[in-house]
Amino acid sequence: MSEEIVGYTVASDSETTREENFPEPEIAIGIDIGTCQCSLAVWNGSQVDLIRNTRNQKLMKSYVTFRDESPSPVGGVTNQLSHDYEMLSGASIFNMKRLIGRVDTDPIVSQASKTLPFLIQTLGIGVKPFIAALVNNMWRSTTPEEVVAIYLVELKALAEARLKRVVRDVVLTVPAAFTRLQLTRIARACAMAGLHVLRLMPEPAAVALLYAQQQNKNKNMVDSGSEKIGLIFNMGAGYCDVAIIATAGGVSQMKALAGSCIGGEDLLLNTMHRLVPDMDSLFSSHGLDEIKSMGILRVATQDAIHKLSFQRSVQIDVDLGNGTRICRVIDVEEFEEINKGVFEKCGSLITQCLRDSKVVKPEYIDDVILVGGCTSIPKLKKIVTDICKKNESEIYSGINPLEAAVRGAALEGALASGVNDPFGSLDLLTIQVNAHSIGIRADGNRFVPIIERNTTLPARREMLFSTAHDNQTEALVVTYEEGDDEKQVLLGYFKVVGIPPAPRGVPEINVCMDIDASNMLTVMAGVVMPGSGTRKPVVPLMEVRMPTADHDGHGLCADALTTSLGSTLDLVTLHNNKLNT
Amino acid sequence: MAAFAVFRLPEVFNHRAGFDHPKHLLSRRISKSRCCMRNHASKVKTASGRNYYELLGISVDSDPQEIKESYRNLQKKYHPDIAGQKGHEHTILLNEAYNVLMKDDLRKDYDASIGHVRVRLGADELNMGYSTWNGPFRPQALFVDENACIGCRECVHNARKTFVMDETTGCARVGVQFGDDDTSIEVAVESCPLDCIHWVEREELAVLEYLNIPRPKQGYGVFGQGWERPVNVFMAAKTFKKHLKQEQAESLRRNVRQDVEQETEAQAQAREKASLKLKMERFAGLWEWMKKV
């Protein structure tokens, strides 16, 4: 059963060393892999504990440094940086969460290729980018999955040392904006690290679970039945998520979920561009000197942005080493003006989420929950509270913005491992929704959603399709997921064969999609001939676990499908046919 | 995994047919005497055997709050996070039922599809009766005066789709209005040895059916507790209506005075509903008093 969820076999040493007869269920640990920082937590039997590393840190920097001497490479869990510049020398790979599962036509990738110290080569044809770290003046290739896996191995070792047991099951938090392709990449990295993923849960879902637990604790004074509406706004270095939840009696029910790939990194890059307008061309060759000056600029800008959360203006005075010296003052107004686009996007995510959730008025929101490092920025606080018509003093204060996600993940880990708490602290549940619409291509290259976004999970939906041509005996079911900005990502495809020859529009092709609680998508298809009396399928049904697409080149693949097959295997929708709404 | 595949695949096509939940019927029977008003209405079983109301264990007149609560409680039992993968199928059904019943338009369509139309008292959403309608509304409806009924089962025998026997009270009652053809209904009405099956105006049906349900009565120590209903349900209905009219006139007068105070539609609806329920409760006390006199 365990391997089936991930979709491939986990071959790891831990399999053999693991004791077969655990007296109690193994409690899955919660991991929050952040773009910038990671943390680890576990249910200790009565509450959630954060696991600290040897340097007593709860939050560990996310990066992996490649080097020649053994043990190579090391990650931010064990490694101690003498200074931030060390991370920016080109030998360390970071920001993996923004790169994993993306193709080189993605603007996020091309933007990163121009601004990160390590090498990201893009061809712009829809294949996986080439990533390399600088080791001994040589670019050594790696992949985002490998980097994440190396990091996870360190986390696993740390957890095993602290808990004095084998760690295998994990619950990871992921951004809501992640497509299924990105999720499989993360699961793949976990498998490489010998970890078994119980759940990949959106960060807001984890926060919702923690919130439900806190509400449940406080319920004895108020009536337990009263429902509280909460808005979760989570913005870290790489991603931004918004969710609307309704919580009562330990159950958090998600009403809407939205996410986008915007975060602190964008704020940083925008500000860097303001300081050095020709930055992209300046650093494009990735020479040693350029990497160094880019690192200096990055650190200085990062510092300035942090300070701007607490003071009105900040003085930047750095020598980039290449003859350029930057000496200027940036105040809060200028910072907000530079990043207007990012802040607007945050606002639109919240309003979209409110609209989707059908919470009639922002006044109905009881609690505004801010999570993630970026939410200490005053402007963001103001955006969220303005939309929700609250004062800044009314922001929910019971949650640590940097630890909420990992604590929620640890709770989910305990739940999914089947732990029972005699005191009812685990009498919890988050009912999640699907963040992206999933559908197939039909009606002449149109995306027809079958499971709409914000559908409660687990979900199953069916739709009837038919052939586009007379005597068409085969049809191609191409599954897409709607990602950020209405862009569709190819998840996979399969052929339905053996359709009896008939005029177009007559055979009924039933396409059914099923998402289970661990967010596993299965697409099923069957052919029925109307008028044959029975509703039995004429050929064996197809059951395909998605995504099946080639992860490394799904962009290329999508184009190839359209150009080489054209419309010969097309499907059309049968009018008004949603079987179950 | 193989077992799952076998179980799941036919679902693509038969998922409408296969579901049945005998457990719910059982629990209904037991809880009947405790809260009879809530459960009678959802008695109608559709041909498909799957009724969203039964699935969620709620009555057809449940308001969104009740649906939500029941849904969450069931989710806590069946959600795969708690029950494991075996909860998958059931949770999908729960989600589907919740999705339909929480949206007013979808719920209306669904109610129509299972042959249940909520009888309304005027424009109010509150449903107090228990019988459902087969086919279009007619000006007159059937009503069994359960005080007079001796439980002879004649009517159930003659028109079994219309009349049902309530075993807990030992009386017959109307389950579905016009569930059978007109002649068998005619025969059934005629066959009643006590003539306790009445043709009543449709508008009066809800009130009569509400008052006809036995309610717990206030006891004194261990004495006098139990269940009772008005001795003359028609008289009780008349009195209730009179009170209602008075109250309405009263509130009308009050409204004129308080015109300045604005009220949203939802608020007004909620208030109306609450006040009507209160009145009902008060009235339950009233006929208790009437009997003593």
From TrEMBL, chain A:
User: Which stretches are transmembrane?
Assistant: none
Q: Which UniProt keywords apply?
A: ATP-binding, Nucleotide-binding
InterPro entries assigned: ATPase_NBD, HSP70_peptide-bd_sf, Hsp_70_fam
Database matches in SUPFAM superfamilies: Actin-like ATPase domain (SSF53067), Heat shock protein 70kD (HSP70), peptide-binding domain (SSF100920)
Q: Would the keyword Glycosyltransferase be found if you checked this record's keyword annotation?
A: no
Q: From which domain of life does this come?
A: Eukaryota
List the molecular function annotations (GO) for this entry: ATP binding; ATP-dependent protein folding chaperone
Q: Where is this region: Disordered?
A: 1-21
Q: Which family does it belong to?
A: Belongs to the heat shock protein 70 family.
Q: What is this protein called?
A: Heat shock 70 kDa protein 8
Q: What's the source species' lineage?
A: Eukaryota, Viridiplantae, Streptophyta, Embryophyta, Tracheophyta
TrEMBL record, chain B:
What domain of life does the UniProt record list for this protein's source?
A: Eukaryota
Checking PROSITE patterns in the record gives: DNAJ_2
**This protein's UniProt keywords:** Coiled coil
Q: Which InterPro entries match?
A: DnaJ_domain (IPR001623), J_dom_sf (IPR036869)
| A Pfam family annotated for this UniProt entry | Fer4_13
Question: In the UniProt record, does the keyword Coiled coil occur?
Answer: yes
Coiled-coil segments: 246-273
- SMART domains linked to this entry: DnaJ
Domain (J) ranges: 51-114
What is the name of the protein in this document? J domain-containing protein
